[in-house]
Amino acid sequence: MNNAPDYMTILKIDNRELKSRLAFFELTDEDFARLASLRDFANKYTHEITEALYDLILGHPETKPFFPDENTVHHVKGRQNAYFLGLFSGKCDLGYVENRLKVGAVHEDIGMPPKWYLGAYRRYLSLIYDRLIKEPRSPKELSDSFGSIKKLIFFDMSFAIDTYIAANLQTLGRHQAAIRELSTPVIKVYDRVLLLPIVGTVDTQRAQQIMEAVLTRVVQDQAMVIILDIAGVPVVDTKVADHLIKTTAAVRLLGAQTILTGISAMVARTVVQLGVDITMMHTRTRLADGITLALDMVGKRISDKDPLKDAATN
Amino acid sequence: MSASIPILKIGANLLATVQIELSDTVSDAFQQDVLTTIEKTGASGLVVDISALDTVDSYVAGMLANTGKMARLMGTETVVVGMRPEVAATLVRMGYMLEGVNTALSLEEGLAHLARTAAKRQGR
């Protein structure tokens, strides 16, 4: 992926955050020293552990497709070894965290769901444990060593999960922006005549967007008339009517006019029954009539063709 | 005298281009100036160009609405032109619809509007 998002910034990870997280996972200098002392163990078993881990991943029908060919497998195994050895580096700074975030981002990029990621970690932990008990250690040593490894692995997972969530939120944000844009498609019908078909529910936030879009475009295009077509609005209640009235008033302040079209029998009935006065707005039922009225306002007329005359000019 | 807004006479109309933020004092003085100039010149139309203003508060909005009414009493039609979208949105949100004030998109259209009104009046 080009231009990978900067998760360090998005997740607001700085030294303070790092410290607080280390404290919560109860990772102390003692843990890191212990991990560093296990480096020989790590070097000895890293390949074995990686192989066994990928036996699980490549043996499952749903995770296998993420690693389609030998090259990819070879590549990720190399990464895995480096990761494993990294656990025993004995230090944890912002650089380490950045590395962890990248791991999460890679998984998110290839679309690997967190369930497989977490499941693989489970296997990882038991693989490590199996190797730890192989060597002569006192029970206290064993429990301390494995405890430190567990702490750091859970710590790592917390970053990866954060990346997953942040990436999803970003996607969501992009979609919302796209929807916002799509929700106010102002169309130029004719010189100085605009049309905004409103489709879907109009809540306060959307009404504000609509007003903003309408006013900006009216000034941009120096439009004399803007037609608001509400045929696609399922419910026109007092609130919606109020928004429409406000938009009309604001458009008038700019020096342009509004025509409201798409008023169904039901909408007409509700609006009057609700006691909303929209008589100061130009209203029409059919969009076509609205366009005719708008053209009239800009001094144009739609007329029938004269067959004789047209034949003569051709 | 502090900053003031020049009021120019073009043909039968007056043109005031507001290019400074209107404080309460300035806007009172402006209203006074406009009315005096109308009295002196007998102009039939007045265009107030507010395209340079990025904010219009309730005091100024009220002043504009009132000036329009006062000018009408003196036989002068007022058009406010060039209001910015964000200004319009804010005014409406605050409940200032400026009913009774004529508006136009640009100075040109404002003058065209005045010409139409003048023609109508003469026709009668």
Task: Provide a brief overview of the structure.
The complex is a heterodimer of chains A (314) and B (124). Chain A has 314 residues and is an alpha/beta fold. Chain A has helices at residues 7-10, 15-24, 29-37, 39-59, 70-87, 94-109, 114-134, 139-182, 204-221, 238-254, 265-273, 287-297, 307-313; strands at residues 187-190, 193-199, 225-232, 257-261, 282-283.
Describe it.
The complex is a heterodimer of chains A (314) and B (124). Chain A is an alpha/beta fold. Chain A folds into 2 domains: 7-180, Globin-like; 187-297, STAS domain (Transcription Regulator spoIIAA). Helix content of chain A is 65%, strand content 8%. Chain A has helices spanning 7-10, 15-24, 29-37, 39-59, 70-87, 94-109, 114-134, 139-182, 204-221, 238-254, 265-273, 287-297, 307-313; strands at 187-190, 193-199, 225-232, 257-261, 282-283. Chain A has a 5-stranded mixed sheet, sandwiched between helices. In chain A, strand 3, helix 10 and strand 4 form a beta-alpha-beta unit. In chain A, helix 6 crosses helix 8 (139-182) and helix 7 packs antiparallel against helix 8 (139-182). The relative contact order of chain A is 0.08. In chain B, a hairpin with a 2-residue loop joins strand 1 (7-10) and strand 2 (13-17). Chain B has 4 helices and 5 strands; from the N terminus they run E-E-H-E-H-E-H-E-H. Chain B is globular, with a radius of gyration of 14 Å. Chain B has 124 residues and is an alpha/beta fold. Chain B has a 5-stranded mixed sheet with strand order 1-2-3-4-5, sandwiched between helices. The model of chain B has no long low-confidence stretch (mean pLDDT 90). Chain B has a single domain (7-123), classed as STAS domain (Transcription Regulator spoIIAA, 2-Layer Sandwich). In chain B, helix 1 runs parallel beside helix 2 (58-73). Chain A binds chain B through residues 211-212, 215-216, 218-219, 222-224, 246-247, 249-256, and chain B through 79-89, 91-93, 97-98, 103-106, 109-110.
